[in-house]
Amino acid sequence: MAPRTRKAAADPSPAFHSNGDAPPPAPSKDETAAVVDVDALLAPVPGEEREEVKINNASATDMKHACDDALKRFLSRPDLFKQIHTHTDVRLALGWLSVLVAGATGLYGWRVPFEQSKPGVWVGVIVYVLLTITQTLYSYFIEGDIVFVGKRKTFDKRIVTERITITSRTTPSTPQTPPGYALGLSYVRSAAGGKTLLGKGRAQEEHVYTGFFDERGVMDQELFERWVGTVVGRVMNGKAQ
Question: pLDDT tens digits for 166-200?
């Protein structure tokens, strides 16, 4: 009867590369799925019907506004981010309040005799000026170049909140390069109502306007969405600082 041979037990210790370093651990299934999900969500829908965007491609302002609007349409899709309109709401509230103060002051000055109404009119004028200045300062110092603030919630064994803030500006042209569209992104991923920070990232990216608009001023929206999706995906996946 042939003797039985025993197979050697597998060595549980991790294998090492020839240089003595252990290989990097493979990403978990959850991490891989998260990356795939983010990339899939941020991919433009091929063949999707879009309303044609045509602008004056000699105007950098028009091209910036068209890009800002396309960015907001793309990122505020139901499966991506819910756009937060706080800055717009504050500016509108201050604007409407100043209009109401001006109207009430004018009506008061018309209904009440001139000498008797002067103190009240002066108060109304001062309040109107203060509201107008506040609106201007808010737009310049607080809102600044912000064009999109978005928020989304997902569930991964707990409620995870993601918040992204995007600024945009036009980079001036030079003798060698045309004007460009520059984005600044800030991303935060947290849990427990913002008390637990899970990740964050920042990125700066720029692309010339001529890459998004043809000679007739028609915007290639799918190309623009692909570029924006790549930049946002890199920040959300933690590949940018």
Answer: 999 999 999 889 999 999 999 999 988 778 888 89
List the 180-191 sheet strands across, edge first. 82-83, 146-155, 159-171, 180-191, 196-208
Work out the number of other CB atoms within 10 angstroms of the CB of residue 154.
Answer: 12
What's phi and psi for 216, nearest 5 deg? -95, -5
Distance between CA 226 and CA 229 in Å, rounded? 5
Q: What are the tens digits of pLDDT across the range 105-120?
A: 999 999 999 889 999 9
What is the pLDDT confidence band of residue 37, given thresholds at 50, 70 and 90?
Answer: low
Identify whether the C-beta of residue 202 lies closer than 8 Å to the C-beta of residue 185.
yes
| Cβ–Cβ < 8 Å for 36, 201 | no
Asked whether the beta carbons of 200 and 235 are under 8 A apart, the reply is no
Question: How many other C-beta atoms can be found within 10 angstroms of the C-beta atom of residue 130?
Answer: 13
- Cα–Cα distance, 55 to 218 (Å, whole number): 7
